[in-house]
Specification:
The chain is globular. Helix 7 (170-179) runs parallel beside helix 8 (192-203). The chain contains 14 helices and 5 strands. The protein has a 5-stranded parallel β-sheet with strand order 2-3-4-1-5, with helices on both faces. The mean pLDDT is 87. The protein has helices spanning 10-21, 39-51, 64-71, 91-102, 123-134, 154-157, 170-179, 192-203, 207-222, 227-234, 239-255, 262-282, 289-304, 308-314, and strands at 28-32, 77-80, 111-115, 140-146, 161-164.
Length: 320
């Protein structure tokens, strides 16, 4: 069973396997990356290799353990993610997963729990996981995957050893996009970060939302695009997807701004508001879509004017 892993990410897998070989692997690790690309494949490869009955640098794909992992029937391996139709990982999911970790391994010496998009856990779910992290059970491994680790409680982050996947080279991103039948926009063909963002949107099926919202944010920050038009663009997608796309667009913009400038501070405060709203949505909040999109668009205009005071006054509306 071969898991397709980007070559840039193999060094983290090798390092974690080396720690395991030397009995130094921590009971909880947090794997992150700038774009989120490759987190699933890297974790899948790591876990399959750890559970494989043969001692190697990758899963053999032939033993009974590999067959169970591939078929999703391995009793010592659990993968938790946002359930279909939901915006977050709920407390019941984490309680069930924690109960899984406490039980004795049935197939080998180790149990592995993976929590994908860990930043999407509700507050209650995070608290339930914290109890498990504080009292590690035997030879168990908990792997948290998160693109935005800052959305995780500090108490969770402090109990995990953090590993960051290397950014993809432009060549790797272009190869992946071409294999997926996606045309590479000429204006970003040499921009590794932008290319990796595009790969990310293609992988998670949100390419249209991210493209439309990113273009809207850029237009709002550099032209006199109306609040009504921007709000309409945001309303064209699920609210959570639109808010997440705004956060990503702002992160991209911030990475190219000089720290300390008026524009940077305004964008930083705007990002704070959007991040807080995103967390509220993932905790089950259901604000009115139309008014929320209009408020987001209004805040972007204030950021364009470097009006930090006005942004701060508006933070309460979005619950920041």
């Amino acid at each position: 069973m071969m898991v397709n892993v980007f070559s840039e990410h193999r060094s983290v897998i090798r390092s974690l396997l080396s720690l395991h070989s030397n009995n130094q692997l921590p009971h909880a690790v947090l794997i992150t990356s700038v774009s989120g690309v490759g987190l699933t494949s890297a974790a899948s490869s790591l876990c399959a290799t750890l559970l494989c009955e043969r001692d190697g640098d990758e899963p053999c794909g032939e033993c009974s353990s590999c067959s169970r992992v591939s078929g999703g029937t391995h009793g010592d391996y659990r993968w938790v993610e946002v359930a279909e139709g939901k915006a977050s990982i709920g407390v019941d999911q984490i309680r069930e997963a924690s109960d899984f970790v406490t039980k004795t391994a049935g197939y080998g010496a180790q149990k592995i729990l993976v929590i994908s998009d860990a930043e999407k856990m509700t507050t209650g779910a995070s608290n339930a996981l914290l109890k498990t992290l504080e009292e590690p059970q035997g030879n168990s491994l908990i792997v948290l995957l998160s693109q935005r680790t800052w959305l995780l409680p500090a108490t969770i982050r402090s109990r995990c050893q953090t590993w960051r996947l290397l950014a993809l080279t432009a060549a790797s991103s272009i190869d992946h996009l071409r294999a997926a039948g996606v045309a590479v926009p000429p204006d970003i063909s040499g921009n590794g970060r932008a290319l990796e963002r595009l790969v990310s949107s293609v992988v998670d099926g949100k390419a249209e939302a991210r493209s439309v919202v990113t273009n809207m944010v850029e237009a709002m920050l550099s032209t006199d695009m109306s609040v009504a038009d921007a709000s309409g663009a945001l309303q064209g997608f699920e609210l959570t997807d639109s808010v997440e796309a705004v956060a990503i667009a702002l992160e991209e913009r911030l990475s190219n701004q000089a720290a300390g400038s008026g524009s940077f501070i305004a964008l930083l405060q705007l990002h704070r508001a959007i991040a807080a709203l995103l967390q509220r949505l993932r905790n089950g909040s259901v604000p009115a879509k139309e008014s929320t999109c209009y408020e987001i668009a209004s805040l972007i205009v204030k950021a364009r004017r470097d009006d930090v005071a006005a942004i701060n006054q508006s933070l309460e509306v979005l619950g920041a």
